[in-house]
Specification:
Distance between the termini: 71 Å
Largest sheet: 4 strands, parallel
Radius of gyration: 22 Å
Order of helices and strands: EEHHHHHEHEHHHEHEEHEHEHHEHHHHHH
Strand content: 5-15%
Shape: globular
Number of strands: 10
Low-confidence stretches: none
Mean pLDDT: 89
Number of helices: 20
Structural class: alpha/beta
Helix content: 40-55%
Length: about 425
């Protein structure tokens, strides 16, 4: 690793930290979330650093370092092998693009191609942290427009001319969408409104509000998708973390602009907005074990209420290195949910079916898991031999939703 202009070998790093390889175990790595992280996002973020040392994070779980991310790639390859062996699990792995420089995409794509980060069971979501204020304070960016250009300009270039970024062109075939992440509980200094400055005029050191980030990501993704559709390429969805904490307007913004969201806990406090999410069947990927360590005790998690009311919810993992204890983090989510909420086999299969419907995997993959007519609404789109969900359950969900929509459209008649 290159630290302050000096190159260190791994044994030198360990000597500097007064560590031996044989001293390492799960306890002193200290990467598991615990009671100290509850409502403390800063302490949660520090858990990404093994034994509290950011230098180890850079060596082992970063793609851009002096060893070209080879340790991190090896870990991901093991995860991919486990998924291949399990046969019945697919994963959408998130990896970060920060927007601090124009060459980030090429570096990430080079890492992915050189280490063969491709697997039939895995697709990639690009995670964009909302930390413009940090880069602006360090003068790494001049304005918010520069961050947007760093994020999206290489994508427009490779869409127009694949030979301009050949490795990025190859990597994007496995990318399904974008996520936006940060601590939603942080107070926002301003609201996004008609008088808000354009990105090129946002030069102050304050972080733009959540809606500002999501709107400009959405606008660029939509324009990029139109171009990619014309050129016969895969397109991207916007699936941000939303409603884990913070203001209600985060959920309003994502309702209007996002395809799916992650978490959505705050919907439990806003019945009218929850009803809109139900009517529009906006997907909500929920991770009760993650929430239990950060924002909401497990027994208060609204997933079971959302599910019973017919919202399109699924169970997913979130930071399994921190919140789970086995090599089967998704099975932990399902098994604990089944025990706590006494879910029936039918309930479990419906949640699994929802997860496939909400995912960004290709049409052919969804067709394989759900049946040839999965896009059709109601029981006609359900193949019980694939989903194990009884037609009567699917019919109940469909008929209830249709009646609600009829009531809204024609209830005055």
């Amino acid at each position: 690793i290159n630290s302050k202009g000096r190159h260190y070998k791994l044994h030198e790093v360990f000597e500097k930290l007064n560590l031996r390889a044989y001293d390492l175990n799960v306890d002193n790595l200290d990467v598991h979330a615990d009671r100290n992280t509850f409502h403390r996002f800063d302490k949660f973020n520090s858990k990404y650093n093994p034994i509290g040392e950011s230098i180890l994070r850079e060596i082992f779980i970063k793609t851009d370092n002096d060893i070209h991310g080879s340790y991190f790639a090896h870990i991901i390859q093991e995860v991919m092998e486990d998924l291949k062996e399990s046969k019945y699990q697919n994963a959408e792995l998130r990896i970060s693009i920060y927007g601090r420089s124009r060459d980030e995409w090429d570096k990430l794509a080079t890492w992915a191609v050189d280490h063969a980060m491709f697997c039939d069971n895995v697709r990639w979501l690009i995670q964009v942290p909302r930390i413009y204020d940090i880069y602006r304070s360090k003068d790494l960016l001049v304005n918010f427009q520069e961050l947007l250009e760093n994020l999206f300009m290489p994508l427009f270039e490779v869409t127009l001319d694949p030979s301009s970024h050949p490795q990025l062109y190859q990597f994007l075939n496995q990318v399904i969408g974008f996520d936006s992440v940060d601590d939603e509980s942080k107070p926002e200094g301003s609201f996004f409104k008609s008088t808000s400055p354009d990105p090129s005029q946002w030069t102050n050191k304050d972080n733009p509000p959540y809606a500002y980030y999501i709107f400009y990501m959405y606008a660029n993704i939509m324009m990029l998708n139109r171009l990619r559709k014309i050129r016969g390429m895969n397109m991207f969805s916007l699936r941000p973390h939303c409603g884990e904490a913070g203001s209600a307007h985060h959920l309003v913004t994502s309702f209007m602009l996002a395809q799916n969201i992650s978490h959505g806990l705050m919907l439990r406090k806003i019945p009218a907005l929850q009803y809109l999410y139900y009517l529009a069947q906006v997907g909500i990927a929920m991770s009760p074990l993650s929430n239990n360590s950060l924002f909401l005790d497990y027994h208060r998690n609204p997933l079971i209420n959302y599910f019973n009311r017919g919202l399109l919810v699924s169970l997913s993992t979130d930071d399994p290195l921190q919140f789970h204890f086995t090599k089967e983090p998704l099975m932990e989510e399902y098994s604990i949910a089944a025990q706590v909420w006494k879910l029936s086999p039918c309930d479990m299969c419906e949640l699994a079916r929802n997860s496939v419907l909400m995912s960004g995997f290709e049409y052919q993959v969804k067709r394989h898991w759900l049946g040839a007519h999965f896009e059709e609404e109601g029981p006609g789109g359900n193949d019980i031999t694939r989903t194990n969900v009884p037609n009567i359950r699917v019919a109940y969900r469909h008929e209830t939703l249709v009646e609600e929509l009829k009531h809204i459209l024609h209830g005055h008649e």
